[in-house]
Every structure is written in C-alpha cells, then in structure tokens.
Fold this protein.
Amino acid sequence: MARSPIVRFYLGQSSDLEGRRIEQIWDWDNSLLEEVHDYIQWLFPLLERSRFNSRAPVLTQADIETFRTNDELKNRLLISFKRMLQFYGLQCLEADGAISITMADSFPERRQDWLNWGDHNHLRITRILTSLRLLGLEPYAQAFFKCLTQIYQAEPDDIDPRSYTFWKEAVTPTTHHLPPTT
C-alpha cells in the first residue's frame, strides 16, 4: 500500500515540498520556528486545507488511522509537539501515566515571541491541539489545553478570548466545525 506524503514525511522517508526533512525542522532554532510559516502544516496536519499554505498536505481518514495505530508515528508526532512546547517555553512532564504541560525555566524569555494579543502563534496552537487529538495523542492535547487555560487566566490581556475559544473547541471531541488555523 502506498504511503501518503504526510506519513512518508513523518517516517523520515521524504521531505516536505521545500525539501526539508522532519529531523531538520526539529533541529531548527526558535528564530526559524518563528520566522518560517510553511512547516507547521506538515508537523501538525489537519483534515482541511490551510488558508495560509495551500500546498501543504491534508489528512485523510487513512492517514488518521495509520497514525493512531502506529507507535513510531505517534512517537515522532510527540517529538514535534515537544519541540513546539520548547518554542513556547513549556515542557511536558510524564509520570505514572499522567501527562502535564507546565512552564519551563525558559518561559519568561519565550513568552515574548507568542504571548501577545492576536499573535499568529495562537492559530498555530489551535492547529497543534486539533492535530494531536485527530492523530491519537488526545491526552497531550488535553494537558496542553489545561496549561494554556492557566496561562490565559493569569494573562487575560495577552490572549484574545476568541483564540481561547478556538483552543477549547479544538480539544472538544464533539466539535464538528473546526476554527481557523494556519
């Protein structure tokens, strides 16, 4: 059975349309992650075409099933997620089957790049939450949302309430209409 472009990319078997391999993106510094805008759709694919990168892959139901049943794919998705958490100044802690996302020591510095009203990273976060849930890492999406809720409550002037609503909808399994994403 032929593998889709997103599955081949995630397994390290092919590059994205710009010739970048997933491992290269994982190694980018935070400046590149902020400045480049056409990688996030590859790291966190969705069912609908991106309004900002129409050439990015779109998930199929077969892709979703492949991710949900393939531990290697889920582990590599987790690497992507943890890299983006580092970008946001957050960290993933796992102990005794419990997952929590908390502020890392780098949070005071990293928040400068994303914790601003209307920042494009808020759309990226919606995409990340939605993709994690679709591809079988819902506990991580829920933990991320819990951390974002704490940040939103502590920093209400830095996050548009609409962004927070999109995040909440992204982790709600009954959501049929997905919010705008990058």
Notes: DSSP finds ten helices and two strands in the chain. The chain has one domain: 5-170. Residues 117 and 160 are 6 Å apart (CA to CA).
